[in-house]
Amino acid sequence: MRRGIAMTTVGALALTLAACGGTETKPADNQTATSTAEAGGEAVAGELTIWADDTRSSQVKELAADFTKEYGVKVNVVQKSESDMNKEFISQVPTGKGPDLIVLAHDRLGELVANGVVGTVDIADKAGQFSEAALAGVTYQGQTYGVPYAIENVALVRNNKLTKAEPKTFDEMIAEGKKANVEYPFIVQMGDKGDPYHFYGFQTSFGAPVFKQDDKGSYTTELALGGDNGKKFAQWLAKEGNEKVFDPAISGEIAKQAFLDGKAAFTVTGPWNTGAFREANMDITVLPIPQAGDQPAQPFVGVQAFFPSAKTQNQLLVNKFLIDYLATPAAQQKMYDIGKRVPAMPEVASKISDPDVQGFSAAGEKGAPMPAIPEMSAVWDFWGVTEADIVTGKQAADAAWDTMVKNIEGAISKK
Protein backbone atom coordinates (compact mmCIF):
# COMPACT_ATOMS: atom_id res chain seq x y z
CA MET A 1 0.00 0.00 0.00
CA ARG A 2 8.18 2.99 4.67
CA ARG A 3 8.88 5.29 7.21
CA GLY A 4 9.96 7.45 4.30
CA ILE A 5 6.42 8.80 4.40
CA ALA A 6 6.03 11.54 6.95
CA MET A 7 3.73 10.02 9.55
CA THR A 8 2.97 13.34 11.15
CA THR A 9 1.38 14.32 7.88
CA VAL A 10 -0.55 11.07 7.72
CA GLY A 11 -2.01 11.78 11.11
CA ALA A 12 -3.08 15.23 10.12
CA LEU A 13 -4.57 14.24 6.78
CA ALA A 14 -5.96 10.75 7.28
CA LEU A 15 -6.57 8.06 1.18
CA THR A 16 -15.03 -5.86 -18.51
CA LEU A 17 -12.57 -5.38 -21.20
CA ALA A 18 -12.85 -2.12 -23.01
CA ALA A 19 -10.62 -0.71 -25.74
CA CYS A 20 -7.26 -0.02 -24.15
CA GLY A 21 -4.75 2.77 -24.70
CA GLY A 22 -4.22 2.92 -28.43
CA THR A 23 -4.05 5.53 -31.15
CA GLU A 24 -5.81 8.79 -30.39
CA THR A 25 -9.21 9.22 -32.03
CA LYS A 26 -11.78 11.95 -32.35
CA PRO A 27 -14.48 12.09 -29.65
CA ALA A 28 -17.60 10.20 -30.65
CA ASP A 29 -19.60 13.39 -30.32
CA ASN A 30 -17.80 16.39 -31.87
CA GLN A 31 -20.59 18.70 -30.75
CA THR A 32 -19.90 17.73 -27.14
CA ALA A 33 -16.25 18.72 -27.51
CA THR A 34 -17.23 22.05 -29.10
CA SER A 35 -19.82 22.79 -26.45
CA THR A 36 -17.34 21.95 -23.71
CA ALA A 37 -14.80 24.37 -25.10
CA GLU A 38 -17.43 27.09 -25.38
CA ALA A 39 -18.36 26.49 -21.75
CA GLY A 40 -14.83 27.27 -20.65
CA GLY A 41 -13.18 23.84 -20.79
CA GLU A 42 -10.51 22.86 -23.27
CA ALA A 43 -11.74 20.23 -25.74
CA VAL A 44 -9.14 17.59 -26.60
CA ALA A 45 -9.51 14.86 -29.19
CA GLY A 46 -8.98 11.29 -28.06
CA GLU A 47 -9.95 8.52 -25.69
CA LEU A 48 -8.55 7.11 -22.44
CA THR A 49 -8.86 3.76 -20.66
CA ILE A 50 -8.50 3.45 -16.90
CA TRP A 51 -8.35 0.25 -14.87
CA ALA A 52 -9.78 0.30 -11.33
CA ASP A 53 -10.85 -2.38 -8.86
CA ASP A 54 -14.38 -3.10 -7.68
CA THR A 55 -14.27 -0.64 -4.77
CA ARG A 56 -13.04 2.24 -6.94
CA SER A 57 -14.43 1.65 -10.43
CA SER A 58 -17.81 3.31 -9.80
CA GLN A 59 -16.06 6.28 -8.20
CA VAL A 60 -13.63 6.62 -11.08
CA LYS A 61 -16.55 6.50 -13.52
CA GLU A 62 -18.11 9.52 -11.81
CA LEU A 63 -14.80 11.36 -11.87
CA ALA A 64 -14.29 10.43 -15.53
CA ALA A 65 -17.73 11.75 -16.41
CA ASP A 66 -16.73 15.18 -15.13
CA PHE A 67 -13.48 15.03 -17.09
CA THR A 68 -15.38 14.09 -20.25
CA LYS A 69 -17.82 16.93 -19.69
CA GLU A 70 -15.00 19.43 -19.31
CA TYR A 71 -12.64 18.21 -22.04
CA GLY A 72 -14.79 16.17 -24.41
CA VAL A 73 -12.58 13.10 -23.98
CA LYS A 74 -14.24 9.69 -23.71
CA VAL A 75 -12.98 7.61 -20.80
CA ASN A 76 -13.41 3.83 -20.58
CA VAL A 77 -13.30 2.67 -16.96
CA VAL A 78 -12.62 -1.07 -16.74
CA GLN A 79 -13.33 -2.92 -13.49
CA LYS A 80 -10.60 -5.37 -12.54
CA SER A 81 -9.92 -7.72 -9.63
CA GLU A 82 -7.91 -6.00 -6.92
CA SER A 83 -5.95 -9.17 -6.18
CA ASP A 84 -4.34 -9.54 -9.59
CA MET A 85 -4.90 -6.22 -11.40
CA ASN A 86 -1.23 -5.26 -10.96
CA LYS A 87 -0.06 -8.58 -12.41
CA GLU A 88 -2.31 -8.17 -15.43
CA PHE A 89 -1.04 -4.62 -15.88
CA ILE A 90 2.56 -5.89 -15.86
CA SER A 91 1.79 -8.55 -18.46
CA GLN A 92 -0.41 -6.43 -20.72
CA VAL A 93 1.44 -3.10 -20.90
CA PRO A 94 4.43 -4.46 -22.89
CA THR A 95 2.02 -5.91 -25.48
CA GLY A 96 0.30 -2.58 -26.04
CA LYS A 97 -2.97 -3.96 -24.66
CA GLY A 98 -2.81 -2.35 -21.25
CA PRO A 99 -4.75 0.76 -20.16
CA ASP A 100 -3.56 4.34 -20.25
CA LEU A 101 -3.93 4.69 -16.49
CA ILE A 102 -4.39 2.42 -13.49
CA VAL A 103 -5.71 3.24 -10.00
CA LEU A 104 -3.73 1.48 -7.27
CA ALA A 105 -2.43 1.77 -3.74
CA HIS A 106 1.19 2.95 -3.75
CA ASP A 107 2.63 -0.31 -2.36
CA ARG A 108 2.62 -1.79 -5.88
CA LEU A 109 4.76 1.02 -7.30
CA GLY A 110 8.17 -0.58 -6.79
CA GLU A 111 7.06 -3.69 -8.65
CA LEU A 112 5.66 -1.64 -11.53
CA VAL A 113 8.88 0.37 -11.80
CA ALA A 114 11.01 -2.76 -11.70
CA ASN A 115 9.01 -4.17 -14.61
CA GLY A 116 9.21 -0.94 -16.62
CA VAL A 117 5.45 -0.60 -17.05
CA VAL A 118 4.74 2.68 -15.27
CA GLY A 119 5.60 6.13 -16.61
CA THR A 120 6.89 9.17 -14.76
CA VAL A 121 4.76 12.25 -14.09
CA ASP A 122 6.04 15.80 -13.71
CA ILE A 123 3.98 17.42 -10.98
CA ALA A 124 6.70 19.76 -9.78
CA ASP A 125 4.54 22.83 -10.36
CA LYS A 126 1.79 21.40 -8.17
CA ALA A 127 3.83 19.46 -5.63
CA GLY A 128 3.26 22.10 -2.97
CA GLN A 129 -0.47 21.41 -3.04
CA PHE A 130 -0.03 17.80 -1.88
CA SER A 131 0.85 16.47 1.55
CA GLU A 132 4.34 15.05 2.08
CA ALA A 133 2.81 11.64 2.74
CA ALA A 134 0.89 11.66 -0.53
CA LEU A 135 3.91 12.73 -2.56
CA ALA A 136 6.14 10.14 -0.90
CA GLY A 137 3.65 7.46 -1.87
CA VAL A 138 4.01 8.15 -5.60
CA THR A 139 7.76 8.75 -5.49
CA TYR A 140 10.24 5.92 -5.95
CA GLN A 141 14.01 6.28 -6.09
CA GLY A 142 13.68 10.02 -6.64
CA GLN A 143 11.17 9.84 -9.51
CA THR A 144 7.48 10.70 -9.38
CA TYR A 145 5.26 8.14 -11.08
CA GLY A 146 1.68 9.17 -10.39
CA VAL A 147 -0.78 11.66 -8.97
CA PRO A 148 -2.20 10.85 -5.51
CA TYR A 149 -5.77 11.50 -4.53
CA ALA A 150 -6.17 9.97 -1.06
CA ILE A 151 -4.52 8.59 2.05
CA GLU A 152 -6.18 5.68 3.82
CA ASN A 153 -5.96 3.07 6.55
CA VAL A 154 -8.29 0.73 8.39
CA ALA A 155 -9.60 1.40 11.88
CA LEU A 156 -11.94 -0.06 14.47
CA VAL A 157 -15.59 0.78 13.78
CA ARG A 158 -18.07 0.54 16.66
CA ASN A 159 -21.84 0.07 16.52
CA ASN A 160 -22.92 2.63 19.09
CA LYS A 161 -26.34 1.02 19.47
CA LEU A 162 -24.64 -2.08 20.88
CA THR A 163 -21.79 -0.62 22.92
CA LYS A 164 -20.10 2.64 23.84
CA ALA A 165 -16.81 1.05 24.90
CA GLU A 166 -13.48 2.44 23.66
CA PRO A 167 -11.28 -0.66 24.03
CA LYS A 168 -7.54 -0.23 24.20
CA THR A 169 -6.74 -3.95 23.97
CA PHE A 170 -8.11 -6.78 21.84
CA ASP A 171 -9.23 -8.78 24.88
CA GLU A 172 -11.07 -5.78 26.25
CA MET A 173 -12.83 -5.34 22.90
CA ILE A 174 -13.97 -8.97 22.82
CA ALA A 175 -15.21 -8.76 26.41
CA GLU A 176 -17.19 -5.58 25.69
CA GLY A 177 -18.52 -7.04 22.45
CA LYS A 178 -19.83 -10.12 24.24
CA LYS A 179 -21.86 -7.90 26.55
CA ALA A 180 -23.84 -6.77 23.49
CA ASN A 181 -25.17 -10.35 23.19
CA VAL A 182 -24.98 -10.44 19.40
CA GLU A 183 -23.66 -13.10 17.01
CA TYR A 184 -20.25 -11.48 16.61
CA PRO A 185 -18.61 -9.52 19.44
CA PHE A 186 -16.09 -8.58 16.73
CA ILE A 187 -15.93 -9.40 13.04
CA VAL A 188 -13.20 -8.88 10.46
CA GLN A 189 -12.86 -10.10 6.92
CA MET A 190 -10.36 -12.85 6.21
CA GLY A 191 -11.33 -15.12 3.32
CA ASP A 192 -9.82 -18.50 2.47
CA LYS A 193 -6.59 -16.84 1.32
CA GLY A 194 -6.27 -14.72 4.44
CA ASP A 195 -6.11 -10.94 4.68
CA PRO A 196 -2.79 -9.65 6.10
CA TYR A 197 -3.81 -6.07 5.31
CA HIS A 198 -6.74 -6.06 7.74
CA PHE A 199 -4.78 -8.06 10.32
CA TYR A 200 -1.56 -6.02 10.16
CA GLY A 201 -2.40 -3.73 13.07
CA PHE A 202 -2.70 -6.76 15.33
CA GLN A 203 0.52 -8.25 13.97
CA THR A 204 2.57 -5.11 14.55
CA SER A 205 1.33 -4.97 18.13
CA PHE A 206 3.42 -8.12 18.65
CA GLY A 207 6.50 -6.33 17.29
CA ALA A 208 6.55 -8.23 14.00
CA PRO A 209 6.49 -5.75 11.09
CA VAL A 210 6.85 -7.17 7.60
CA PHE A 211 10.28 -5.65 6.72
CA LYS A 212 13.07 -4.06 8.76
CA GLN A 213 13.87 -0.37 8.30
CA ASP A 214 17.22 1.40 8.10
CA ASP A 215 18.30 4.32 10.30
CA LYS A 216 16.61 6.75 7.89
CA GLY A 217 13.29 4.94 8.11
CA SER A 218 13.40 3.39 4.64
CA TYR A 219 12.37 -0.23 4.28
CA THR A 220 15.13 -2.75 3.61
CA THR A 221 14.62 -6.14 1.96
CA GLU A 222 15.26 -7.99 5.23
CA LEU A 223 12.15 -9.60 6.67
CA ALA A 224 11.14 -8.72 10.22
CA LEU A 225 7.96 -10.76 10.58
CA GLY A 226 9.80 -13.90 11.67
CA GLY A 227 11.52 -14.73 14.94
CA ASP A 228 9.95 -14.97 18.38
CA ASN A 229 7.63 -12.00 17.87
CA GLY A 230 6.26 -13.42 14.64
CA LYS A 231 5.61 -16.74 16.35
CA LYS A 232 3.80 -14.98 19.19
CA PHE A 233 1.47 -13.45 16.63
CA ALA A 234 0.99 -16.83 14.95
CA GLN A 235 0.17 -18.47 18.29
CA TRP A 236 -2.34 -15.71 18.98
CA LEU A 237 -3.97 -16.32 15.59
CA ALA A 238 -4.28 -20.02 16.43
CA LYS A 239 -5.86 -19.21 19.79
CA GLU A 240 -8.40 -16.77 18.35
CA GLY A 241 -9.15 -19.16 15.51
CA ASN A 242 -9.78 -21.98 17.95
CA GLU A 243 -12.18 -19.70 19.83
CA LYS A 244 -13.94 -18.87 16.52
CA VAL A 245 -13.14 -15.16 16.74
CA PHE A 246 -11.52 -15.36 13.29
CA ASP A 247 -12.88 -17.40 10.41
CA PRO A 248 -11.64 -17.69 6.78
CA ALA A 249 -15.28 -18.15 5.80
CA ILE A 250 -15.82 -14.46 6.59
CA SER A 251 -15.32 -12.53 3.35
CA GLY A 252 -15.34 -8.77 3.05
CA GLU A 253 -18.96 -8.74 1.96
CA ILE A 254 -20.05 -11.07 4.77
CA ALA A 255 -18.29 -8.95 7.39
CA LYS A 256 -19.80 -5.77 5.98
CA GLN A 257 -23.33 -7.20 5.88
CA ALA A 258 -23.11 -8.66 9.37
CA PHE A 259 -22.15 -5.26 10.74
CA LEU A 260 -24.91 -3.59 8.71
CA ASP A 261 -27.43 -6.07 10.11
CA GLY A 262 -26.44 -5.26 13.69
CA LYS A 263 -24.90 -8.70 14.27
CA ALA A 264 -21.48 -7.36 15.31
CA ALA A 265 -20.46 -4.85 17.94
CA PHE A 266 -17.09 -4.02 16.36
CA THR A 267 -15.37 -4.47 13.02
CA VAL A 268 -12.05 -3.49 11.46
CA THR A 269 -12.59 -1.91 8.07
CA GLY A 270 -11.77 1.14 5.99
CA PRO A 271 -13.55 4.28 4.79
CA TRP A 272 -14.81 2.37 1.75
CA ASN A 273 -17.46 0.75 3.99
CA THR A 274 -18.40 3.48 6.45
CA GLY A 275 -20.39 5.26 3.75
CA ALA A 276 -22.71 2.25 3.52
CA PHE A 277 -23.04 2.16 7.29
CA ARG A 278 -24.05 5.82 7.36
CA GLU A 279 -26.49 5.35 4.46
CA ALA A 280 -28.16 2.62 6.54
CA ASN A 281 -28.58 5.22 9.32
CA MET A 282 -26.23 3.37 11.63
CA ASP A 283 -24.80 5.21 14.61
CA ILE A 284 -21.09 4.43 14.42
CA THR A 285 -17.80 5.71 15.77
CA VAL A 286 -14.36 5.19 14.22
CA LEU A 287 -11.65 4.34 16.77
CA PRO A 288 -7.98 3.31 16.78
CA ILE A 289 -7.33 -0.43 16.46
CA PRO A 290 -6.79 -2.02 19.89
CA GLN A 291 -3.49 -3.75 20.49
CA ALA A 292 -3.38 -7.54 20.73
CA GLY A 293 0.26 -7.70 21.80
CA ASP A 294 2.25 -5.45 24.12
CA GLN A 295 2.86 -2.69 21.59
CA PRO A 296 0.55 -0.16 19.87
CA ALA A 297 -1.28 -1.46 16.81
CA GLN A 298 0.06 -0.01 13.56
CA PRO A 299 -2.27 -0.50 10.61
CA PHE A 300 -0.90 -0.08 7.13
CA VAL A 301 -1.17 3.45 5.75
CA GLY A 302 -1.55 3.60 2.01
CA VAL A 303 -1.63 6.29 -0.67
CA GLN A 304 -4.20 5.89 -3.43
CA ALA A 305 -3.13 7.24 -6.81
CA PHE A 306 -3.53 7.19 -10.58
CA PHE A 307 -0.46 5.82 -12.37
CA PRO A 308 0.18 6.14 -16.14
CA SER A 309 1.25 3.30 -18.40
CA ALA A 310 4.81 3.58 -19.69
CA LYS A 311 3.51 2.51 -23.10
CA THR A 312 0.46 4.74 -23.46
CA GLN A 313 -0.07 6.13 -26.95
CA ASN A 314 -2.16 8.94 -25.47
CA GLN A 315 0.45 10.86 -23.50
CA LEU A 316 -1.15 14.23 -24.15
CA LEU A 317 -4.48 13.04 -22.81
CA VAL A 318 -2.85 11.31 -19.87
CA ASN A 319 -1.13 14.55 -18.88
CA LYS A 320 -4.38 16.43 -19.38
CA PHE A 321 -6.17 14.05 -17.02
CA LEU A 322 -3.42 13.84 -14.39
CA ILE A 323 -2.03 17.36 -14.31
CA ASP A 324 -4.77 19.65 -15.57
CA TYR A 325 -7.66 17.78 -14.00
CA LEU A 326 -6.80 15.33 -11.17
CA ALA A 327 -4.16 17.58 -9.59
CA THR A 328 -6.73 20.26 -8.77
CA PRO A 329 -8.68 20.95 -5.57
CA ALA A 330 -11.96 20.47 -7.48
CA ALA A 331 -11.11 16.93 -8.63
CA GLN A 332 -9.65 16.02 -5.22
CA GLN A 333 -12.85 17.23 -3.57
CA LYS A 334 -14.88 15.22 -6.08
CA MET A 335 -13.01 12.03 -5.22
CA TYR A 336 -13.59 12.68 -1.53
CA ASP A 337 -17.28 13.34 -2.06
CA ILE A 338 -17.81 10.02 -3.83
CA GLY A 339 -15.26 7.85 -2.04
CA LYS A 340 -14.88 9.40 1.44
CA ARG A 341 -11.11 8.80 1.48
CA VAL A 342 -8.95 11.48 3.08
CA PRO A 343 -7.81 13.85 0.29
CA ALA A 344 -4.15 14.04 -0.68
CA MET A 345 -4.31 17.85 -0.73
CA PRO A 346 -4.20 19.57 2.69
CA GLU A 347 -6.24 22.46 1.28
CA VAL A 348 -9.10 20.06 0.64
CA ALA A 349 -8.59 17.82 3.70
CA SER A 350 -8.58 20.74 6.12
CA LYS A 351 -12.13 21.63 5.18
CA ILE A 352 -13.55 18.23 6.09
CA SER A 353 -15.30 18.00 9.46
CA ASP A 354 -16.69 14.48 8.94
CA PRO A 355 -16.19 12.55 12.23
CA ASP A 356 -15.44 9.33 10.34
CA VAL A 357 -12.60 11.00 8.46
CA GLN A 358 -11.28 12.37 11.74
CA GLY A 359 -11.50 8.90 13.27
CA PHE A 360 -9.55 7.24 10.47
CA SER A 361 -6.99 10.01 10.68
CA ALA A 362 -6.49 9.39 14.40
CA ALA A 363 -6.25 5.63 13.82
CA GLY A 364 -3.54 6.22 11.23
CA GLU A 365 -1.41 8.53 13.36
CA LYS A 366 0.72 5.60 14.51
CA GLY A 367 0.23 3.65 11.32
CA ALA A 368 2.97 1.89 9.38
CA PRO A 369 3.62 3.05 5.83
CA MET A 370 3.00 0.21 3.42
CA PRO A 371 6.29 -0.89 1.79
CA ALA A 372 6.54 -0.01 -1.90
CA ILE A 373 9.68 -2.06 -2.54
CA PRO A 374 9.37 -4.73 -5.29
CA GLU A 375 10.06 -7.45 -2.73
CA MET A 376 6.67 -6.74 -1.18
CA SER A 377 5.00 -8.59 -4.05
CA ALA A 378 6.67 -11.80 -2.88
CA VAL A 379 5.05 -11.55 0.54
CA TRP A 380 1.28 -11.40 0.09
CA ASP A 381 0.36 -14.89 -1.13
CA PHE A 382 2.42 -16.86 1.41
CA TRP A 383 1.45 -14.48 4.20
CA GLY A 384 -2.32 -14.59 3.80
CA VAL A 385 -2.67 -18.33 3.17
CA THR A 386 -0.49 -19.08 6.19
CA GLU A 387 -2.65 -16.92 8.44
CA ALA A 388 -5.79 -18.68 7.19
CA ASP A 389 -4.24 -22.13 7.71
CA ILE A 390 -3.20 -21.25 11.26
CA VAL A 391 -6.67 -19.95 12.11
CA THR A 392 -8.34 -23.13 10.86
CA GLY A 393 -5.79 -25.39 12.51
CA LYS A 394 -4.70 -26.81 9.17
CA GLN A 395 -1.11 -25.99 10.12
CA ALA A 396 0.56 -25.68 13.53
CA ALA A 397 1.31 -22.04 14.31
CA ASP A 398 5.11 -22.07 14.85
CA ALA A 399 5.92 -24.48 12.04
CA ALA A 400 3.61 -22.72 9.59
CA TRP A 401 5.10 -19.32 10.35
CA ASP A 402 8.68 -20.59 9.99
CA THR A 403 7.83 -22.21 6.66
CA MET A 404 6.16 -19.02 5.47
CA VAL A 405 9.23 -16.94 6.26
CA LYS A 406 11.49 -19.39 4.40
CA ASN A 407 9.16 -19.40 1.40
CA ILE A 408 9.05 -15.59 1.27
CA GLU A 409 12.83 -15.37 1.57
CA GLY A 410 13.14 -17.85 -1.29
CA ALA A 411 10.73 -15.87 -3.47
CA ILE A 412 12.61 -12.62 -2.72
CA SER A 413 15.95 -14.20 -3.64
CA LYS A 414 14.59 -15.01 -7.11
CA LYS A 415 13.62 -11.41 -7.83
Q: Name the CATH superfamily classification of the largest domain.
A: Periplasmic binding protein-like II
What percent strand? 15-25%
Specify the biggest β-sheet. Answer: 7 strands, mixed
Assembly form of the protein: single chain
Number of strands: 15
Class computed from helices, strands and strand pairing = alpha/beta
CATH architecture of the largest domain: 3-Layer(aba) Sandwich
Radius of gyration: 22 Å
Work out the helix count: 17
- Assigned CATH class of the largest domain: Alpha Beta
What is the count of structural domains?
2
The overall average pLDDT, rounded, is 87
Overall, the morphology is: globular
Distance between the termini: 19 Å
* Helical residues, percent: 40-55%
Task: Point out poorly predicted stretches.
Answer: 1-41
| CATH domain topology of the largest domain | D-Maltodextrin-Binding Protein, domain 2
Structure in words:
The chain is an alpha/beta fold. It is built from 17 helices and 15 strands. The strands form four sheets. Strands 1, 2, 3, 6, 13, 14 and 15 form a seven-stranded mixed β-sheet that branches. A four-stranded mixed β-sheet has the order 8-11-7-12, with helices on both faces. Helix 3 (57-71) links the parallel strand 1 and strand 2 (74-80). Helix 3 packs antiparallel against helix 13 (329-339). The longest helix has 17 residues, at 397-413. It is globular, with a radius of gyration of 22 Å. The protein starts with 6 loop residues before the first helix and ends with a helix.
